[in-house]
Amino acid sequence: MTAIVFDLDGTLIDSVPDLHAAANRMLKAEGCPPLDQAAIRAFVGNGVPHLVRLILQASGIDMREHARLVSVFLAIYQADPCTLSTLYPGVRTCLDQLHAAGHTLGICTNKPEAPTEAILAGFGLRHLFSVVIGGDTLPVRKPDPAPLTAAFSALEPGPRLFVGDSEVDAETAQAQGAPFALFTEGYRKAPAAQLPHDVLFSTYEDLIDLAQKPLLSTRA
Length: 220
Hints:
Structural class: alpha/beta
Oligomer: single chain
Distance between the termini: 11 Å
Number of domains: 2
Radius of gyration: 17 Å
Largest sheet: 6 strands, parallel
Number of helices: 9
CATH superfamily of the largest domain: HAD superfamily/HAD-like
Strand order of the largest sheet: 5-4-1-6-7-8
Helix content: 40-55%
């Protein structure tokens, strides 16, 4: 069986609507105009501090307010992290089938651990994952390989697979030495062909078959 670790945002869930809502509630409280959803989508992937930094830059807010506004943003977002977010089509069925087949599953995301846990619980998925590594679980976050290493270490030994959607995920997989399945419908900014990967997939029905392929076991 394969130990499969998933990114969260842009991989299992489209979380941008809730991140966008939280960002604009924060900006409104600061007396600033809202940003559009496309801008927030472009900012996602490197964790909340980076997201807030880009929001401040786009809104002309003094960067000396960064630490305070990271706390403000987190308080707003953690109060309501999944009302507007959606699972990508086929995710629930795919995860259920992989789990039932005996694969061990984990999460490695740059989203803080508390909202990650809340989102997984909100979608009724938490019981499927043996480990959840968030952006604040360790002193470092992706693309440092340590979070992915920690996630795999908590799963069964054997073949491994990391599933993600972005440049950060591709870099993390390379640094960790894990086979990488790139979900093409997420938040990446460059063409898929420019990101190092072992396989591409655009639907979760395909991932069920990909998890069995010997190609993905060669670096175990």
